[in-house]
Amino acid sequence: MTTTGEDRATAPAGPWWWARWRGAVLDGSLALVSALECGAEGVPFARDAGIPAAVGVVFGVLAGSVLLVRRRWPIAVVLVAIAITPAQMGFLLATVGLYTLAACEVPRRVIAALAGMSLLGTMIVTFVQVRQDMDRGDLTLGNWFVPFAAVSASLGLTAPPLLLGLYVGARRRLMESLRERADSLERELQLLAERAEERAEWARNEERTRIAREMHDVVAHRVSLMVVHAAALQAVARKDPEKAVRNAALVGDMGRQALTELREMLGVLRSSEGQVPVQVRGRAGRAAVPLAAVGVAAAAAASRAAGGGGEGPCLSELDELVGQSVAAGVAVDLSVEGEVRPYAAEVEQTAYRVVQEALTNVHKHAAGARTYVRLAHRSSEIAMQVENEPPPEPASASAAGLPSGGNGLVGMRERVVALGGVFVSGPTDAGGFRVSAVIPAS
């Protein structure tokens, strides 16, 4: 079972150079067994060498104990094993040392050189030992058995631990590579989750802005007219009762239309609450991405509510829009140039909204000012311009008490630019205000 980098960082550390206590206990046990083996083999070595047996035992125990540092200095362990090969001791030391050397991050040429030295040393010692046994008569086989025994013994003691160590080392490096890839993927997933959360927040803000813009365009115009008619009703209530009745009827109609439009928009938003946001889950976290269709549906519903039909407002309804402003007491002249033709729904809706918002601003800031609405149908684009003269009474601009959120011009610009058009607005030299927009026809 493998662990990721985070798990390894929290794993308990062992003493000295050991990564874990389990490794320290294993190496200590192997060193103890190797010391006992070499100590027992030190007795015949001391007898053959003509030295005290205690010296041979101590020498064997010290040599076998070198196995304790096999993870830290594997080359030194193998060199010690090669050095004591003529003394015919260190079987476990040589086997474990070669395995550790092959499994460690040691250059292959160093492994090959030390393995060759161990193989050669074992072969020579075995050859000499078998030859001596045959000379003493302990073995009665032919001369062919001497090289066969030497080669077999050297290969048997060298090849298995060497090959096993190479395999374990390769597998260990592969697992480490897989762990690094897993850590990298985990970091990438975390980064993707953070970016998804940022995109989700951006999408939510965009949808809120879009819905607010649609509601502003749909409701602000009619409510502005209602306020203008209410002010006129207050002014003529005693002087001209018949006109007051007409203004009251217009206020009622405008209010009912505004309520109907609000009800339709809120109904669509309420029905969109059942659509659960899309959630991206991963090891690093969770990011919620709202369905863009919710905001699009609300925007479309707002457009349908404004036009009263299924496709939203269109340029053919400009006469009615201008008529409402005229009924509110604003002198509006509408002129159309070029050949009238149908456009894409979003183009007609945007053109209608620009004119609608410009007229709403006239009601808010220049009540009673003469206004000119120009619409030009060109070969590859449609242009519109709404320009008003200075208001006859500067104080009348705010007489009706119409609030201004400052988002009308921003909304118009966003609509036009989104379709690849150009939007310009600003005061005129005569003291009025002009709004111009050009939208590509396709």
Automatic annotation (TrEMBL):
Gene3D superfamilies: 1.20.5.1930, Histidine kinase-like ATPase, C-terminal domain. Pfam families: HisKA_3 (PF07730). Its EC number is 2.7.13.3. It catalyses: ATP + protein L-histidine = ADP + protein N-phospho-L-histidine. The keyword DNA repair does not apply. One of its GO terms (molecular function) is kinase activity. Residues 168-206 form a coiled coil. Residues 207-272 form the Signal transduction histidine kinase subgroup 3 dimerisation and phosphoacceptor domain. The chain crosses the membrane at residues 49-69, 75-99, 111-132, 144-169. InterPro entries: HATPase_C_sf (IPR036890), Sensor_HK_TwoCompSys (IPR050482), Sig_transdc_His_kin_sub3_dim/P (IPR011712). Keywords: ATP-binding, Coiled coil, Kinase, Membrane, Nucleotide-binding, Phosphoprotein, Transferase, Transmembrane, Transmembrane helix, Two-component regulatory system. This is histidine kinase. It comes from Streptomyces kebangsaanensis.
